[in-house]
Amino acid sequence: MVNKISRLLAVLAIFSFSIWSAGCGAAETKNTAAESKPQKEIFVSAAASLTDVMKEISAAYTKNHPDTKLTFSFGSSGALQTAIEQGAPADIFLSAAQKQMNTLDKEGILAEGTKKDLLINKVVLITPKDSKVEITSFADLTSDKVKRIALGEPKGVPVGQYSEEIFTSLNTLDQMKAKAVYGSDVRQVLTWTEADEVDCGIVYATDAATSTKIKVVAEAPAGSHKPVIYPAAAIKASKNLDEAKDFLAFLATPEVTKIFEKYGFQVK
To answer: Quick one: which residues bind molybdate (predicted)?
Structure first.
C-alpha cells in the first residue's frame, strides 16, 4: 500500500495538471432540496486541448444536474494515462489519441462497453502573429532561419507524436529534432508561440482558434499522420459509474455536438 501511494505521489510530482471544477453552484444557491441530497463528484481526466470546450459543456451539464460536481484534470494524454494507471482519482478519460486509451483498455482499466471515438481534430503549423521569420509551409522549417520549433514531447503528448509522424513523412525528422523545444502539453506549445519564444509551433486547429496572438500558416499535409481521433471511456474502478456513463451519454447529445463544433471539433 505504501509503495502504491509513493508511486502515485511520484507521478503527480512529475506531471502537473490544471484542475477545474464545475457544479458548486448548487451548494451556493441555498436550494433546500439540492442541499438535502449529497452531491456526487465525477473526476474527468481530459486532454489539455479540451480545456475551453469542456468548461462550457460542464456548465450545461451541471445546470440540469445540480447534484453532480464535475472536477476536471487537464494535461497531456500520456501523463493522464500514467496517473490513472497509478490510481489517481478518475471516473472518465478523454484522450487526444487512441494510443493512450487503447493501452488502458488492454490493461483492463476501462469500464466494459464505454469506450467510443468522440471527436476529430486537425494538426496545424503556427507562428507568432508578428513573426519576422517567413514560414508558409512545413517545408520551410528546414530553413536556417528557423531556429526553434515548439513541439509536444512525443513520448506522452499526442500532438508531439503526430508532429514526428509528419516530419517522418517529409523525411525531415532528424533536422526537426535538432531545432525542437519540447512542451509538456499542447497548451504549453501554444503559449511559447504566443510569447514569440519560438519561431513556430505545431498544435491542434482547435487550440490555434483560441488565440489572437498567433497565425496559422499551414495544415499538416494530407496523409502525413494518423487521424487525430479523441476517444472517451469510463474507468472501471469508478465509484460513480452510472453518473460517469450519464455524462458520457450527454457528450453525444445534439446540444453538446453544437458546442464541440463551435470550438472547431468535428464530432464522430
So the answer is: 49, 77, 186, 204
- pTM for the predicted model, two decimal places: 0.84
181-193 mean pLDDT: 97
pLDDT digits (tens, 9 = 90+) for 18-29: 565 555 443 343
Asked whether the predicted pLDDT for residue 215 surpasses 80, the reply is: yes
Q: What residues form the annotated binding site?
A: 49, 77, 186, 204
Would you list which residues are annotated within the binding site for molybdate? 49, 77, 186, 204
Whether the per-residue pLDDT at 264 is higher than 70: the answer is: yes
Bridge-based pairing state of the strands 149-152 and 200-204? parallel
Pick the CATH number of 123-219 from 1.20.120.1810, 3.10.180.10, 3.30.750.24, 3.40.190.10: 3.40.190.10
